[in-house]
Queue: 2 jobs
Job 1
Amino acid sequence: MLTGTIIYAIINSAILALTAIGFNLTFGISGVANFAYGAFYVMAAYGVWMLIHMAHLPYPLAVLISIGFTTLSGALMYRFVIVRIKGQTLSEVIATFGIGLSVLELFRYFGFVGFEYTLPVFHDKSFIIAGAYVDAQRLFILAFAVALIIALWLFTHYTHLGLAFRGIAQDERTALTFGMDPDRIASLAVSFGAGLAAIAATVIVPLGSISPEEGYDVLIKALAVCIIGGLGSSGGVIIASVVVGFAERFTDSYIGSHWTMIVSLAALLVVLVIKPSGIFGKQKELEERI
Amino acid sequence: MKRRKERIDRGIKARSQDIFALSSWREMLYLAGPRLLPVLICLLLPLILGVYWQKVLMSVAVFAILAISWDILAQSGMISLGQALFFGTGAYCSGIMNHYWGLSPLLTLPIAAICGGLISTLLLLPVLRLRGVYFSMVTLIIPLMLVRVIEATKVFGGTEGLSGMDPLPSTAFEVYLIVILLLAVLFGFRRLMDSDYGLVLKGISDNDRSVINAGINIYWFKAQALFIAASIAAFAGAFMTHVYMFVGMPVFALDYSILPIAAAVVGGPGTLAGSVVGAFILVPLSEVLRGIGGLRIVFYGVFLVVCIVALPEGIFHYIQRKYHQIERWVEVEK
């Protein structure tokens, strides 16, 4: 029981990290809290489903097209909506939330609800590790999450674009004097975030089915992980997803599934009250409390 | 006879946007008109509306009160994402008093407003020091958590909720109670925010450290603002409990947090009147759109986005500016 719980907790942490990393990237670089994040996640999953079942495309091609399309729609959202209200946090949140709401409810309106809306697994085999059944998809998610985090780290530290991302995040005005265009970088950051949501969706959705509710859940989970870790800090996201992932699995197995959500929300509250900028966030004492 | 155009505020605005010099009935009407018109509309509407639209008017008023409460908090520098917390505690307070102790609704309404305000203020007291987005996050999380706690511990009826509350005497009484309260809250708190007391609150939102420098205890003022805003929202919650004769987990739903913010932002934050304008547009809009079924929320979302992108200042500020710019024909003096 204990080893099984630990294994599933690790996988749960990987899933949380995958769902949160796109939201975190967008916020960390452009400062835009993208509340349409869950909608992008669900949109990508439905996109793959439609391409496979309606256009009869092969699976890998469908995945590529869907991720590309989601990335593009992120850029379009920045270009036509966010750029006009950038800097007004409340307006940004309401506008992106409005977009997410419309997209999710549109899917619900067209009747995309049910168990048949799921994606194929990469490999349907399961292994027995230390006495617990683990299927190949979950192991793949774990490996994929680690690979993606390493790839992102390499990208932000060794490529021109990645360095520009970090430059804008650190100091927008200084970056401007080096010829980096904040608007272009921010639009790329929003579209990359959407693309990461799409990647997470194609990997995670095969475990269950797609539904519009999933969009709201993904948004809340991503928010929780990002706040606990410290908004905009990538190390924090990993630590926070491990903390939340373990806390969720252990309350689920030992206390009861009713308490799962309460435990993660309570963790969130405690972090906000004690260290508002999150475990790994940069401490800005006077900005967070007075 | 030659004529020319003249702005209707010519010679009335003495020193600034809102200091006026009035010297005739016409000039007084210029100021009183925009204030009397909504009062008349609010008081006469229940007489001409049918039963269904009277219910809609009630929920307009409730959401307008929630939006005003949000705006008072926002003007004091506390952006709340959890109006549902205030609404829900008020609703549960009156529900419990009526269901377990059998108090009459006329007693539970005011007591629930005070108790709900007190409980919400006490819950948020430890995080009063948090600023900006961190305070908002806490207010967003607490109602989500209270729902789960009620679900897990099964207190106050658990997922079933409490039903069978006593209704208010009549529908007309309900409508007029909430509409008159809305008007009182709107004009009362507009006055309050213009007084020295309101000036301190606005100062806290502009620059809290310089207010501290002035020797003012900002935590005490913030707690008072929180109590005021929470109490009026709790009254709205208690009112809805007796209208629906039911209280349950839906009172902590995200709708009661998001719709008031949307109303305040679409209508124009910082004026209180904007919140009412926003509620009078958004709530009936969502009722009209009910006819098209599931697409309702889609249109709703699109409308929000369009409003925010096209009119970031809010509808009320826009109308106010345009009203002052109206021109009339006058004779040219020789």
Note: Chain B has a mean pLDDT of 85.
Job 2
Amino acid sequence: MDKYLEMIRIRFLMMLAYRTNYYSGILIYSINIGAYYFLWSAIYGGKEEIQGLNVIQMTTYIAVSWMARAFYFNNIDREIAAEIKEGKVAVELIRPYNYLGMKTMQGLGEGIFRLLFFSFPGMVIVSFIFPLSYTSSLTTWGLFAVSIVLSFVVNTQINLLTGMMTFFLFNNDGLIRAKRVIIDLFSGLLLPISFYPGWAQEMMNLFPFQAISYIPSMIFTEGFGGQEIIHALLFQFVWVLILLLPIQLLWYLAKKQMIIQGG
Amino acid sequence: MFYLSIFFQYVGQYMKTRLQYRADLLVEIFSDILFQAVNLIFILVVFGHTQLLNGWSQDEIIFIYGFFLVPYALFSTFFNIWDFNDRYIVKGEMDRILTRPIHSLFQVILERMELESLFGVVTGIVIMIYAGTNLDLAFAWYDAFIFIVMVLGGAMVYAGIFVMLASIGFWSDARTSIMPMMYNIGNYGRYPVDIYNKAIRFVLTWILPFAFVGVYPASYFLGKTDWYFYAFLTPIMGIVFFLLAVVMWNHGVTKYRGAGN
């Protein structure tokens, strides 16, 4: 266990060394939030609320989704792909740890760093510029925290799967990009799932993507209440368990038919 | 002529490398289309809940987006220079470029070319035809030429801004994240600029004129007469910004000191 904790720490320190990159990152996210803020204000026009969210809740939803993205987002799919292509994965496999577990811990170290140095200050800055509403309910904050951890796990699991596909495709930059687009759209980052037409919502219920962004953001903006929250958290948790299966399977297959390209 | 033949030789080499991993190339084009579809889906879903966006109808917004995709595709095919600073200045690759008897910017463009992005032209035109038929737009015979001029103008605005930013690298090789930031600001041009407040509108028109890539030129084809002034300014803005960028680049190259190694 110690070595995994150490990995989180090292990744955290590594990120700390390059922290200036993050100030501009906050600016970029604010620009995106701004674009959607104006767009949504125009969309609402004079309307009181759409799908149970008013303008301020909507703005908050967007701000929280982007800032939460800083936490759950990581590039371990790209890292895994690069390590496979360069043949480094051969050395990684000899080392006395679980390769996928180690990648996850690195992602977590990155996530914790961004949560502290990106999401928190970012949220403060954004709430000066745009009208946001924060809940005062401690339970909501608590549930949000649980939900955001689960969303990190689901997103990381999907990243591990995409990264491991390199074993079979050799060059999967395209797949990684496609995955990123799909997650932006179907996780609820750009649009709350409840805005989609009914048939699309039902289809999305069959996929894990809304566990990544929609659920935590809806909990934070209090768009979900009571029973809905429990149901949403269960949805996330069940997907965490389900996704373990293909990961194990792919990992098993990958080790069996691995080809080291160079090294 | 010499430049043209160099161009086709680069294209030939490029095709060879890309066709090596065919499956990946297909996935990449597919993911590009997906990326373009995301914004379309956004517009469609949003208009499921409202009739007008500040007086613009759904099909008008879709048309603007379709138009935006065409100059943007040209730009991203040839001006893939967002990592110019890292790739050429910090790593000293610029040394190699400068020893050759072709204009340095032209070489960098050729080396970083991504021809598969041209597919965006097709997507854009398909989207415009779809929205145009819904709107019953009438086109005159000369509109095809105006379209080409507008597209080139828009692409040059984009190219101008990014070449200028890349040239900053000649003076300071510090890592900056201005480039990705600019890509995000560029997205503002996809929607009618009158939904933003005055300050942002001013910036998008005169300082970072991304509005000339989407709304302004598209409003000509949509017959929005009160925007015609801005629409016809598009090629002029394109030429001015691109020339400025080339001047800045040429001046920057003389300041290039090379990365010691």
Note: Chain B has a mean pLDDT of 88.
